[in-house]
Structure formats: C-alpha cells, structure tokens
Amino acid sequence: MSTTRDSVLMPTLGSHYYTDDAVFEAENELIFESQWYYVGRADEIPAPGRFLRRRVGRETVLLVRGRDQVIRGFLNVCRHRGAQLCLTETGDTGKAIRCPYHAWTYGLDGRLITAPNWQAMDSLDRDGYGLHDVHVEQWEGLLWVSLAERPEPLRDQLRPQIEARLADYAKFERYDLGGLKVGGRVEYDVAANWKLIYENFQECYHCGTIHPELVHTIPEFQSPAMGTGGYDPTGYAIAAELDSFSLSGRTVLPTLPHLLPEDDRLYYGMVVRPNCFISLVSDHVIVHRFEPLAPDRTKAVCEWLFPAEVVDSGDYDVSDAIALFGKVNEQDFAAAQWCQPNMSSRAYRDGGVLVPSEQTQIGVFYRWYLASLGEVA
Fold first, then answer.
1. Cα gap 76→62, rounded to integer Å
2. Residues 6+ apart with CB under 8 A from 318
3. If we measure between CA atoms, which residue out of 60, 321, 316, 340 comes closest to residue 195?
4. pLDDT (tens digit, 9 = 90+) per residue, 31-76?
5. What is the spatial distance between Cα 45 and Cα 62, in angstroms, rounded to a whole number?
6. Torsion angle of C-alpha atoms 182, 46, 52, 184, degrees rounded to 10
C-alpha cells in the first residue's frame, strides 16, 4: 500500500475484503487455521476434566486439562459419526470425554477408551481412533492453538510483535500477565468485519470525536496527528490531574508488583496478530479476544486482569477501572458497525483512504494481512 503520486492519502483495502464470502474463507484457511490463534486463559480450565470449546476458523476445538495437568487440544469431532463431543463453551467432562450421541468414550489424553458393544469390535486398534489433536501452547497465561501440521514456535510469532510495539520485551514481561486474574469480562456481538475493528484500534484519528472519556484520561489522544510515524514505544501518559486509568480518574488500585518507576502512569495498546489486543496500564491489563464469525460479524471478548489479591480480597472496587475501557469498547464497536453496511456500497467499491496519522500502523497490518493471503501489498 502506498500513497498516490498526487495525494498524501493512502488507499484502504477494497470493499470486497470486508464483504466477500470467498475472502472470508481464504482468511480462515490462511490466517486463523494456519497461524497461532488465541483461545483463552489457562486458568479457565484449572482442574482435570475442565474444558474450553472454541471456534478456530471453520473448526471447533476442545482444550482439556488432563490428569497430568497438561492442557491438550482436540478437534471437537467424534471419530464414529462426527458428532460434537462438547456442546457448551466451558464445562467439566469428568474423568473422560463421552460423545453425547453414541457414547464413544475418550480419555482426557484423547485416546479411545471404549464404545457400546465393544465386544463386537475388540479387534479394533484403539490407538488409530483417538481424537484428532491440535497444537497448544501457553504464553503469559494465555492459551494459543494452531491447526497447522508443523507450526512455527509460538514465541517466533508473538515476540517480534511485542518488540516492535515496546522496543523492549523485558518491559512487557514486567506486567506478568500469567500472574494476573480476571476481574471483569464482557462479551460483544459486533455486526462488522474483524478488520474494521483492527483498523480502528490502530489509529487515534477518531479518538477526539468518539472517545471523550479516553482523551480526558490521555490528553495526547486528543490530537488528530497522534500516531503519525507509528506507535510511541515509551507509552502515553495519563493526565497529570488524574490518579489512574479509570472512568472517574480517582480509583487507585495497587500498582502491578513487578513494574519499575518508569512504567508508572503510562498506557500501551497493541494488536497481537491474528486475534488479540493487549492494553497495559499501571494497575491492570486488558486483553481482547476475537472470533471472526462471518464477513460482517465478529465475536469480541474483553477481559480485565488484576493481581489475584485485588480480585480475591474484596478490599478493592475494580468497577471504575473496568468502566473506562467498557466505554471505549462500546464506542469503537459502534463505529465499526457504522462502517460495515457501506462496505457494499457502490460509493466504496474501491475502498477509502487513510490520512497520514493512520498510515504507518494500519499499513503494517495491511502488509501482514495481504502477505498472509499470498497477495502483494
């Protein structure tokens, strides 16, 4: 993507990238089913038998903690007749995974244990009929899966993105995401293409227009030139007259325990491709997970993470901290929904344009996206 010779504006992707079923199928195959994909937190399945069910591209995946405490991933497909094994997003399988249709039963390690009338099939090689497994790795307490046959190391996908944003991976490690606990969670059904949401998060040209609470908290976001040249790796400062990153600005939670003095009172936001946003502030971390469901529909899950003692003690009210980004989410998702209907307009057939302050970060996203689809930016 580049500016035209007679303009400082850069073209966006064409409208069909936001509406076309064939494009969405290609995204599923070449991005969501090929790269490491964020599915949830390890502490959501704390004990053997606990599971998560997640959509990954066009597949449904189960993540189950085994008796050996290892979290494994499987396609949610019975080897008998293809029934879904788990019918809810989370739950407890007990000591084994039992198909609700014909009761084929699998161990928590995915191996076939038994089936009704097993005597008639006792010559069957059980090892050949275990569940289809998928790759699972943990990173900072977050669970990622890959449907690729031989995926690259998860670290190789994630670490360069963090370093490009913060210029120092050690800075990110100080927030200790794996040591935090969910203190708030909101799920959104957004009637918009996932890329509209991602583009919005990577520019602040809109901030002064639709985010009054956010620009009050971080005055630098008021400037329509904010973001020109890309992210500032030193972070964005909270307003001097405010105490914290919260809706009132007054709720003061304990600073995250491993931060350094130079980390205090700063905000960092980042897209971690392909389906995660992370926002870092001094007393909590915000993590978004996205499930693209259709060209015009995206599920978004936002979780606010705090130290366990903050969540468990009952001594702290985290609602004020949650409320600020709750407002930001509602405003951003509404904006994406304003745009989606006109992605199919004849007036937008060739797409729109990016102003200079939008071009660097969204340009990085476009280059990654088009390269993932095998196209030239």
1. 6
2. 183, 184, 253, 284, 304, 306, 310, 311
3. 340
4. 999 999 999 999 999 999 999 999 999 999 999 999 999 999 999 9
5. 11
6. -10
Q: How many CB atoms lie within 10 A of CB 309?
A: 12
The answer to whether 325 and 286 are in contact (CB under 8 A) is: yes
CA distance 115 to 198: 46
Specify the amino acid at residue 178: G
Distances (CA, A) of 129 to 114, 118, 239, 310: 10, 13, 60, 46
The span from the CA of 43 to the CA of 178, in Å, is 9
Q: Are 224 and 357 in contact (CB under 8 A)?
A: yes
DSSP bridge pairs for 184:
304
Tokens coding 5: 């010779």
Q: Is the separation of the CB atoms in 339 and 200 below 8 Å?
A: no
With a CB cutoff of 8 Å and minimum separation 6, the contacts of 229 are 360
- β-bridge partners, 38: 144
Cα diameter, the chain? 78
The total number of residues written for the chain in this structure? 377
* CB-based contacts of 263, cutoff 8 Å, min separation 6: 171, 174, 235, 282
Amino acid at 120: A
- The string of pLDDT tens digits covering residues 347-375 is 999 999 999 999 999 999 999 999 999 99
- CA–CA gap between residue 368 and residue 377 (Å, rounded): 9
Helices 319-339, 194-201: axis angle to 10 degrees equals 120
Kindly indicate the confidence band of residue 4, based on its pLDDT and cuts at 50, 70 and 90.
Answer: low
Q: Does pLDDT of 259 surpass 70?
A: yes
